[in-house]
Amino acid sequence: MGVNWKVLAAGAALTAPLVAILATGFGKNPQLESNALEGRKAPVFTMTVLGEDGETVDLASLRGKPVVLNFWSTWCQPCKIEHPHLVQAAKVYEPQGVVFYGVLFSDEPANAARFLEREGHAFPVLYDPAQRVAIDYGVSGVPETFFISPDGQIVEKVSGPVSFDKIRATLGPML
């Protein structure tokens, strides 16, 4: 039985452009991408706190305090890696006036509740069901963490898992 050259050529013709498209995205480190929001006012929002019977958080009401805003999901492996760092940082810095919030990204509240019960938590998680806040912040994937100064400016955005050392280094000048 011989090689069916027509099928092989058709498969190559379909596969080659797909491989080329995918290859253009590889090699880009999201941590090196700039964030156009750094140095600008943080987009304001009002979101519901998970598990708090309709309690909401309004970013404008937090003026005067540094804010750490972390977009995450339970299906995100790097989010699981950074979670203990965020919990540790919240325990250290909340007594100093820093406010921490997680924002559930493209996930179900029940999944988040199970994850937080199992892994522990030290700060509220907000729910953005239509991803409007994520869009306003230019979130392209999780985890992404935004450091917002007391005057409401985005000081820095970290794409990828954030470490306790990075949190400490970024919050230090704001305190």
Overview of the molecule:
By secondary structure, the protein is an alpha/beta fold. 35% of the residues lie in helices and 19% in strands. The chain contains five helices and seven strands; from the N terminus they run H-E-E-E-H-E-H-E-H-E-E-H. It has a seven-stranded mixed beta sheet with strand order 2-1-5-4-3-6-7, covered by helices on one side. A hairpin with a 5-residue loop joins strand 6 and strand 7. The termini are far apart.
Shape: elongated
Number of domains in the coordinates?
1
Radius of gyration: 20 Å
Helicity range? 25-40%
Distance between the termini: 75 Å
The percentage of residues in β strands lies in 15-25%
Based on the structure, what is the oligomeric state of the protein chains?
single chain
Assigned CATH architecture: 3-Layer(aba) Sandwich
What's the CATH class label?
Answer: Alpha Beta
CATH topology annotation = Glutaredoxin
Given the structure, what is the number of helices?
A: 5
Low-confidence stretches: none
Structural class: alpha/beta
What is the strand tally?
7
Task: Sum this structure up briefly.
By secondary structure, the chain is of the alpha/beta class.
SSE inventory with pairings:
Layout: H1 5-25, E1 46-49, E2 56-58, E3 67-72, H2 77-93, E4 99-104, H3 109-119, E5 125-127, H4 132-136, E6 144-148, E7 154-159, H5 164-171
Parallel strand pairs: 3-4, 4-5
Antiparallel strand pairs: 1-2, 1-5, 3-6, 6-7
